[in-house]
Amino acid sequence: MNKQRLAGLIVLVLVAAVGVWWAGRKAPIEPAAANVQQLQQRIAALEKRLAELESQEPNGLQFAPQTVPGEIHILPQPETAVPEQQGDRREINGMSYYVLPLGTVAGVE
């Protein structure tokens, strides 16, 4: 291949690359007056809805009882069945855990 053909091929590839880049780029977005007006109407509707929701009393929300500093409240604990501690007791970093046989836990013998 002579130098002129090689140079022509390189120029062709560069022109093609610039053309692909030029076609792929997006034009800058300019805000249209109608679009801005629609967004302002939507914001106004959302602000109105927010004001309605804030004025309503909450349904189904439970608040913690008021406490006096230094006062201790003991809540009743539900009774739960504690499984028997079967298996090997082990400890990692000061925390105890038990290795239980799977057959006795799942009821499968």
Key terms:
single chain; 109 residues; mainly alpha; two-stranded antiparallel ribbon; 3 helices; flat
Topology readout:
Layout: H1 3-24, H2 33-55, E1 88-92, E2 95-99, H3 102-106
Antiparallel strand pairs: 1-2
Description:
This protein has 109 residues and is mainly alpha-helical. The chain is 46% helix and 9% strand. It contains three helices and two strands, in the order ααββα. The protein has helices at 3-24, 33-55, 102-106; strands at 88-92, 95-99. It has a two-stranded antiparallel sheet with strand order 1-2. The radius of gyration is 36 Å and the shape is flat.
How many distinct beta strands? 2
Q: What is the makeup of the main sheet? A: 2 strands, antiparallel
Number of helices: 3
The helix content, as a percent range, equals 40-55%
Widest sheet: strand ordering: 1-2
Shape: flat
Cα(first) to Cα(last) distance is: 82 Å
Radius of gyration equals 36 Å
Mean pLDDT over all positions: 76
Strand content: 5-15%
Note the run of SSEs as H and E.
HHEEH
Structural class by helix and strand composition: mainly alpha
